[in-house]
Give the backbone structure.
Amino acid sequence: MRKVKWAAAAAGVLLLVAGCGKEGGSDKAKDKGGQAPAAGSPAPAAGAGTSGGAVDAAAVKKQIEAAATSAGFTEQPGDDVPANLKSCMVSWTADGKKVSDSRKSYDATVATLVKDGWKETRTIDQPAAVVKSLDKTGWTLKASHQGKAGALLVVSFIATETSATCAKAFQEDLAKNKQ
């Protein structure tokens, strides 16, 4: 079952990295009359990181964790990112039951990430779910708030590095787990 879950996540990440599935929702760059970045193009450098402006997975996780915990979230234990994808992917799931207003905390987390240099590039806002895409220094972050308190509620922050090396690692992991 765990392999199926990661295979589905890897497939979703491939679609996100490749820029597929852009119908629906709003594209903030296009809404402002600008043009959205080409699919597969690296995000512009937007802050300090390791050498050359690149940010590693540990730094991305630290940024997500700092923003989420300052908004009142605690991390909910979950499945670990597979070892072969740890340098390419960060997954942080909030325990939405431990805050009084999970949507308010979600919005505060996203606002803090934007203040920290993440650029909001796309929003899908539907009655029971909101997903925001943010880019920074070669990484794409999907911030998701789905469901509602008292029912099924999932608040997650999943970041993927957009390099060709990581795209290949996701494809290999997906192929390995197809069965």
In short: Confidence is low (pLDDT under 50) at residues 1-52. The longest strand covers residues 139-147. Residues 71 and 108 are 6 Å apart (CA to CA).
